Amino acid sequence: MIPGYPETAEVTLDMKQELGPLLKKYNEGISEYTFAGLYLFRETHHYRIGRLSEECVVLTGNDRGKAFFMLPTELPPREILDTLFASHSELKGITESKSQVLAQMDYRIAEDRDNFDYLYLRQDLAKLPGKKFHKKRTFVSGFMKTYAHESKPLLRDTIPVAQAVLEEWHTIQGEDGDLAATKEALLHFEELGLCGAVYWVSGKPAAFVIGEPLLENNSYVIHFEKALTSFRGIYQYINKAFASVIPKKYVYINREQDLGDEGLRQAKLTYRPCDFVKKYRASLPRN
Question: What pLDDT does residue 287 have?
Fold first, then answer.
């Protein structure tokens, strides 16, 4: 049960039935605003949740000592917004439509470029057509000619294979990154309603992908993608392979944000996004 604000609680798995439908109803394509997206990163951002009204929930959090809040469903009245701003430095994860409403209310609005979601045409990632994807096709072709490869859906019996890949990936990386969130995604795969695939290369478990539908009949989000880079071209291969099995009703693939990492930004741009899901931040107007 989500408590009434100002009381808040940690985001727990048993909130999925209550919170999931609300998130689906109001989501405008933001990758964080699925139940899995909030639950899996609840500790990273110190999320807590409270209910402002039947249709409105607030998430509070703290990044590097900076308190913030997010409103993934509907916007509350002005007086409630001002109360939230009194104890938090900013409102994050604002959609484009909500940013316009907040601007009309004289809040200060700023683009949050580091958190823009990258949006791709599913058909582009599945087929890699034309000159603009020539290098990607070369990597995929080289991979397929060099290695024997096999894939299976990520299900209860293949999750241990993905867990083994994750442990080896972590050993090679030498840093945690999103290790904890990925581990939980595999542990609670079914409860969270996630989908995915596992890949073997030359008989060895080598990669996995985890995602979920984001907007019905519109977009699909990729949350996690891990691979052993000793197999040249493997990331390009699994990117294309997984896009090829996503149902055709999903026009777009959302591959989340770059978080301001310049290397990640350039890598995402090489796949030629067709658009971005823009996000904004809001703060109190200057006196």
Answer: 61
